[in-house]
Design brief:
- The protein is α+β, with helices and mostly antiparallel strands and 346 residues long.
- The chain has two domains: 147 residues; 116 residues, 3-Layer(aba) Sandwich (Aminopeptidase).
- The chain has a ten-stranded mixed beta sheet with strand order 1-2-3-4-5-14-6-13-11-10, sandwiched between helices.
- A hairpin with a 3-residue loop joins strand 10 and strand 11.
- The chain starts with 13 loop residues before the first strand and ends in an 11-residue tail after the last strand.
- Pfam families: Acetyltransf_1 (PF00583).
- This is N-acetyltransferase domain-containing protein.
- One of its GO terms (molecular function) is acyltransferase activity, transferring groups other than amino-acyl groups.
Length: 346
């Protein structure tokens, strides 16, 4: 039995849903109107809705929606606590307020996030919330509220301190890599023969992303999933007449008009050859053209030199000392004391 937490003062109406089909049309319209920033929530909603409509409803999901006060009630926040193909996701936070306008303010931030925290504690309990990912102010305020409510402390260093960026046909920077035409490298969707090598790279990628590491079996499961759902491309080099996967790019969170690149990895022995730039560019080209996407998004660590790779492909707002760009904001993932939570994976 979860503790019964009193509802916050009803300044901001709150609704919860455990099935995607329970969400109101205004929530769907809000998220579909902002598919880049909603990329951590909307794709899972689509998958859950599809299963529900086919008579296979899912379990273990929760969405919390906070509205502005009446009479002009509109969606202000959407939080999700859902499962992915590898495990349970963090709590994801989305807001319709541009992140630069957010402040550590009780009326517009603290009170709504307190309502979200109360709903999470009541429905899923404290052990389920192992981390939170969202615009920096939201993540920080949520952590303060959650720790005060559950007495589970936040881990000081973020699991992930990042910036969201995007590219579209207008910003895309085309270039050709002569190594492709010369046959020195190949860029293509993955085939079944690539699965063992993709699994190795997935495992290495996770090894550089603690605490979300993978066993060999889990890495192989991920590689099979990515291939089966056509979510991974490879760049190969040929050695001794055998193709070797030198870089992988996966894009696992996709909605109608936006795709999100979620994994780019080149093992150490192949770094310094701009393989990642070549492969990312070709994947973006495919997603914007044959894939019919209006935007391709990704998150990049604020201290990650890979930002230069993405900038050269056309992802905006990543230049050093770049002026602010609408939609390019800091997002952070904070974890909670791992002695008191059940760690998931994403």
């Amino acid at each position: 039995m979860f503790p019964q937490v009193p509802q916050a003062q009803a300044t901001f109406p709150v609704t919860t849903a455990t099935q995607a089909s329970q969400l109101s049309p205004d929530v769907w319209a809000t998220l579909e109107g902002d598919q880049v920033n909603a990329n951590v929530i909307l794709p899972t909603l689509y998958k859950c809705l599809s299963r529900e409509q086919s008579g296979r409803p899912t379990q273990g999901h929760l969405w919390v929606v906070v509205y502005s006060p009446a009479p002009r009630s509109r969606v202000l926040y959407v939080a999700s606590c859902t499962d992915g193909y590898q495990g349970k996701y963090p709590v994801f936070l989305y807001t319709t307020t541009p992140p630069p306008s957010l402040r550590h303010d009780h009326i517009t931030v603290t009170a709504p996030l307190r309502s979200i925290a109360q709903a999470l504690w009541t429905v899923v309990g404290s052990r389920r919330v192992y981390s939170v990912f969202g615009p920096t102010v939201l993540a920080e305020v949520f952590c303060r509220i959650w720790t005060g409510m559950t007495h589970i402390g936040r881990i000081a260093q973020p699991y992930y301190d990042s910036k969201i960026s995007f590219v579209n046909l207008r910003t895309f920077r085309d270039a050709s890599d002569q190594r492709i035409s010369q046959g020195r490298i190949a860029v293509r969707p993955a085939t079944s023969q690539d699965i063992p090598q993709i699994a190795q790279l997935c495992g290495q990628f996770a090894g550089e992303s603690p605490p979300f590491v993978l066993t060999q079996i889990q890495a192989l499961q991920e590689a099979n999933y990515l291939f089966a759902h056509k979510l991974v491309w490879v760049l190969t080099v040929t050695r001794n007449n055998l193709p070797e996967v030198a870089t992988i790019v996966a894009f696992t969170r996709n909605s109608r008009n936006a795709a999100t690149i979620t994994k780019v990895f080149t093992p150490v022995q192949h770094r310094g050859n701009r393989y990642a730039e070549t492969l990312v560019r070709e994947v973006v080209r495919y997603l914007l053209n044959q894939g019919g996407k209006q935007n391709v998004a990704l998150y990049v660590g604020v201290t990650n030199m890979a930002a230069n790779v993405y900038r050269r492909v056309g992802f905006v707002g990543l230049e050093p000392n770049a002026p602010p760009v609408d939609g390019v904001d800091r997002w952070v993932e904070y974890g909670f004391n791992r002695d008191h939570v059940d760690l998931g994976h994403w």
